[in-house]
Amino acid sequence: MSEELTTVQQEQTQQIASIEQTAMAVSGGNVWQDKNAFNQALRAAQMLSQSTLVPQNYQGKPQDCFIAVEMAARMNTSPIFIMQNLYVVKGKPSWAGQACMAMINACGKFRDVKHVYTGKKSTDDRGCYVTAVRISDGEVVNGTEITMQMAKNEGWTSNSKWKNMPEQMLGYRAASFFARMYCPEALMGLQTQEEVEDVQPRTQPTATELTATLKGERG
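User: That's the sequence. What structure does it adopt?
Assistant: Structure tokens below.
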């Protein structure tokens, strides 16, 4: 039984490798302007949607797989990486928190990328920033330091993850700030899953609030 399972796993792995080779071939052209690239992306998306090794939310959805293949081509990365790290949160496509560090390392601009934690654990002074060496000039660049006090001031701690896993959340947010400042193209304009979850939706003011505001302006 175990030999049969191993054989199936090997076949599935080979299938994924073949699909990825097809998908990576798309990187040579713009799928929206190149008919051949479009057809290759479509073929890869159809195969990916039929695989049980891709995340469940992509299975049976060739349209979503196509978007993943197209994004992977633009980022020169694997469609599987996109599928494993791209989520829809509150109706918005968002990167998984851990994806930021991977994209910073993969962008080719930096080396020795790492998190640096500051302050004492379980206090508002606890913080984290990402530091790296820029390959082009050898300069050490530091991202914005994210602290628990900042998280409280910005209202992020309404998300229970900041209470349950503060160290991880500090690291995720520090990586997203670094990426947005020094290699924004890697994020393709998207926020991280945690950033979207932390933002409280805006509500329309009530008639009473509007009246009070107008009175204050006139008063």
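The chain is about 50% helix and 15% strand.
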